[in-house]
Write a structure and sequence with these properties.
Layout: H1 2-23, H2 29-49, H3 56-69, E1 76-78, H4 80-91, E2 93-96, E3 99-103, E4 108-113, H5 118-122, E5 129-133, E6 136-137, E7 156-163, E8 166-173, E9 175-178, E10 184-188, E11 192-196, H6 204-218, E12 222-226, H7 235-243, E13 251-256, E14 265-267, E15 279-283, H8 290-300, E16 305-308, E17 316-322, E18 328-337, E19 347-350, E20 353-356, E21 364-366, E22 372-374, E23 383-384, H9 392-399, H10 402-413, H11 426-438, H12 446-460, H13 464-488, H14 490-518, H15 520-530, H16 532-538
Helix pairs in contact: 1-2, 6-7, 7-8, 10-11, 10-14, 12-13
GO molecular function, one term: serine-type peptidase activity
InterPro entries: ClpP/crotonase-like_dom_sf, CtpA/B_N, PDZ, PDZ_sf, Peptidase_S41A, Tail-specific_protease
Coiled coil: 464-499
Length: 541
């Protein structure tokens, strides 16, 4: 049986390579066939002769993943479930409970809840730790326990969870969850329309259009489009969103590839809604891909000003390729470029390692009005705001969910606190400092790693005793620098902690309202839009 399975795999591989050979535009058929033959022979010999029993499927998965790791982070292999998840992300609709989760070894933690979703209606709260789903204990489930929350519309599931110190049992009815691409928009002071675009799903451009037209009816004479933390999505929707402000027939982006058929130019296809209204686009280092196409095109065409911090720099284009048994490969086929000719991509990849271009190697390009802009990855704002930049220490704190955990702990201790009564002050920040100290949070830098390497080398070469005091001094100075980093980022931490607390008290809507009232970036955008002379000067008019 094992031999038959291996023969089938080899036959499938040979057929695939043969088919590829007749359709590829590259002249490397012989080399591909040669390497496949070597691999299939090795795969057969290992499966038939290895001293211990091996799992052929797991072995093949390991080989595939190792091969793709040498390329870039976006060229990946998808099984059927991952394909379905991608479709859900692009559509903005799925059947489930309407909550973001954090998967832990013994529980699923509710990270965020969509207002009026099945999770919300059932009474789930941010911070709830679900330890049992139906008859299954999360700690005993070896696969992704989050999949257990999905199911047919109107189907029920019983959840057992821990909320602070109390165990609860909740019956939840699953339903269709609609995730809005535009979760919030509002008319601000000085007749400024504010639109948040959180992702580029299939409905992104239509939702932005509806919000834009409603705001104009309310009296908006200028627009802030917030793309901060928007990871991207569908390219077609990025072009359509740009089209709202840019006239028909204008190039928004183009792609370059080693294969001619993938070289494409994407232009606006519809009549613009408004080509004159002043526009400010907000970005940060988490604004990626489609977000960078919109912000980069508006900047290159001098159609709007860009405010915030340099965007992520994801300019590689992927295309899904169908494989056998319902699987797919998502393969990088080309690079994105903005209208001026800038490449959005920040990193090159060689043997699985990322390489960033040095600043002195950046290339200058010109906008429509002759302003200088540069490549080197991502979109650099016209007005930079330090608040939007996060150092490595803050990123590590976020990665470890320390701000999220603190917000839950803080609110559990402040029972009865509401949006109206919550006040952010220095005592909250001090409490956070004590919280991470109790958690024994360790931030290891590359310098820490090098010092450890130095210690080990010195020990191996019997030099440690003579330089030990110098190493201790290095460690002490490094620790002082880390503490300074935390102090330097006190305003950023203050903002992030406030967001986490008010989200738990009043959903995402409360966070967006907080941005409009207290956000430095939005205030900078308002000032820039209200100063007509500055606005025109930035755009080169």
């Amino acid at each position: 049986m094992m031999i038959k399975r291996i023969q089938l795999i080899i036959l499938t591989a040979i057929v695939a390579v043969t088919s590829y050979g007749f359709t590829t535009y590259k002249n490397d058929f012989f080399e591909i066939a040669k390497q496949i033959e070597i691999f299939t022979n090795l795969y057969k010999e290992v499966n038939m002769n290895y001293v211990d029993e091996v799992n052929p499927a797991e072995l093949m998965n390991t080989a595939i993943e190792a091969m793709l790791e040498d390329l870039d982070p976006y060229t990946v292999y998808w099984n059927e479930q991952e394909i379905q998840n991608a479709r859900i992300r692009n559509s903005g609709n799925y059947t489930g409970i309407g909550a973001d989760i954090i998967s832990k070894s013994n529980a699923i933690v509710i990270r965020n809840i969509i207002k009026s979703s099945p999770a919300d209606k059932a009474g789930l709260k941010i911070g709830d730790e679900i330890f049992k789903i139906g008859d299954i204990q999360v700690k005993d489930y070896n696969e992704d326990a989050g999949e257990l929350l999905k199911g047919a519309p109107k189907s029920e599931v019983i959840l057992e969870l821990k909320r602070h110190t109390t165990n609860k049992k909740i019956t939840l009815e699953r339903g269709v969850v609609n995730i809005k691409a535009v979760p919030f928009y509002k008319l601000l002071k000085n007749n400024t329309g504010y639109i948040v675009l959180s992702k580029f799903t299939r409905s992104a451009s239509s939702e932005v259009s509806e919000a834009f037209q409603d705001l104009k009816k309310q009296g908006a004479t200028q627009i802030i489009l917030d793309l901060r933390n928007n990871p991207g999505g569908l390219l077609s929707e990025a072009v359509n969103v740009s089209n709202i402000f840019i006239e028909k027939g204008t190039t928004i982006t183009f792609t370059k590839s080693a294969i001619e058929k993938y070289n494409q130019t994407y232009t606006t296809q519809n009549k613009a809604l408004d080509t004159n209204i002043p526009v400010a686009v907000l970005i940060n280092e988490n604004s990626a891909s489609a977000s960078e196409i919109v912000s980069g095109s508006l900047q290159d065409l001098d159609r709007g000003i860009i405010i915030g911090s340099r965007s992520f720099g994801k300019g590689l284009v992927q295309r899904p390729k169908k494989l056998n048994y319902g699987t797919q490969a998502k393969i990088t086929i080309s690079r994105y470029y903005t209208p001026s000719g800038r490449c959005i991509q920040a990193l090159d990849y060689l043997d699985g390692k990322s390489i960033r271009k040095n600043k002195d190697k950046y290339t200058e390009f010109k906008t429509k009005n002759g302003r200088s802009v540069y490549d080197g990855g991502g979109v650099r704002p016209d007005i930079e705001v330090d608040e939007e930049k996060e150092n490595e220490l803050v990123k590590e704190i976020i990665k470890e969910n320390l701000i999220f955990d603190f917000a839950n702990t803080y609110l559990n201790e402040k029972e009865g606190l509401t949006l109206e009564t919550f006040v952010m002050n220095t005592s909250v920040i001090n409490n956070f400092q004590k919280f991470i100290d109790k958690k024994d949070f360790k931030f290891e830098t590359k310098t820490d790693q090098k010092i450890k390497e130095l210690e080990q080398i010195a020990k191996n070469e019997n030099f440690l005793k003579s330089i030990e005091s110098s190493i201790m001094e290095l460690k002490k100075n490094l620790q002082n620098e880390k503490e300074n980093l935390l102090e330097e980022e006190s305003e950023t931490l203050r903002k992030l902690i406030t967001e986490a607390i008010i989200r738990k008290l009043g959903y995402d809507e409360a966070v967006y309202n907080y941005y409009t009232q207290e956000g430095e970036v939005i205030n900078k955008a308002l000032k820039a839009l209200n100063n007509k002379a500055q606005y025109k000067e930035i755009l080169g008019f």
